[in-house]
């Protein structure tokens, strides 16, 4: 192959030789013209929406097939295990999960360097990720909310345990020492977590060259039938995902029903054409970023699995501490009781509070009203709204920093990332000196410009933590 084998151009040429295509001619005629991107899509850069991504190369119609990736181009466990040495060893470790095996297989394949058949694709993977499992103690504390700190600690210990369990297999395979480290494990597991796509025959999913260049947009209400939107209020466990199959699960393990698949599916593996097919979820103008829904996620979940958050995520949730008698006065599951991104209580929280606020001996007779979303009385409504306001204020007051301080902190972090002058640094230290000092102390580095790679990476995770608590 001509040119730098690590370049995007070489990757796209390689992809077209595998039959990955965005050409409408090819979809129709099944011809083997070597075309990959330029017909429907173009690789482009979107600084405020995911960085590298795919733009519409022309006007795209809603529901139009825009990319097809043949099965033979997908990286799956079964594909990598075709290597006989790998297969023999993997068979001896059947207690490992399918995801652990995929991570090990990926590391083994990466270890082949330029000799791997997938080398042009691997060269397009990010060098590092900002998923929760890679957060340091400082970055974790910056999340400030107990639940989020706990989720981060859990993600870190899960990654440590997964690696520990897989280590004997990796040693059996004689992987290079560099591939056995925790940071290599974190890199490979973040690659799998943030880039795999659902396939019906393997719950570890597959890596999909070119298809994994689509950035994310939350499944939008505008594409849902109104009866589904209405039913959101009534069925708290129902989540809608505009991609994947008819019934599947998102990465947090929640059931995801693709109720109206024709209208909502924007990517799925299709057996009849033996390919992963991608469709435009809406009409796109030429040059606009074409987005994909990976599933329904809160910002904390996006941070955990993908290492980013969405400004104004319609699926975000804030949980407030509720006394035990609130939980026991209704049958709503705990995870359905939250404040929505728009500041309103979830349907279940409102219903649970309405029931809790009436005398226990009336709950049976008024239960049907509360469960169907009706107000019980004006007094009851005023009481619970006041209760909610007071509780939300208490939560906000308990944060170590106020919103205004966080806005300032974000500004300082962004300035630090932007190669500030010594004068600017002095100014920042006079306003936010303590926290910046603590940041560099914990990194065991002095404040020096340009910032080291380690300081830059840590700063981008610190920024995500501050953005998350602000949102
Ligand atoms: C499947 S990849 C998408 C392509 C990726 N931008 C690339 O250059 O390879 C998923 C990753 O893209 C980034 N990403 C996707 N959607 C995003 C969004 N809306 N905002 C910020 N980052 C996003 C996150 O880093 C995420 O882990």
Automatic annotation (TrEMBL):
This protein is called what?
SET domain-containing protein
The UniProt entry, under PANTHER family, shows: PROTEIN SET DOMAIN GROUP 40, UNCHARACTERIZED PUTATIVE METHYLTRANSFERASE
On the tree of life, the source organism's domain of life is Eukaryota
Any single GO BP term: methylation
Looking at the keywords, is Glycosyltransferase present? Answer: no
Keyword entries, A-Z: Methyltransferase, S-adenosyl-L-methionine, Transferase
What CDD domains does the record point to?
SET_LSMT (cd10527)
Q: Which residue intervals define the domain SET in the entry?
A: 39-295
Q: Which SUPFAM superfamilies match?
A: RuBisCo LSMT C-terminal, substrate-binding domain, SET domain
Q: Which GO terms describe its molecular function?
A: protein-lysine N-methyltransferase activity
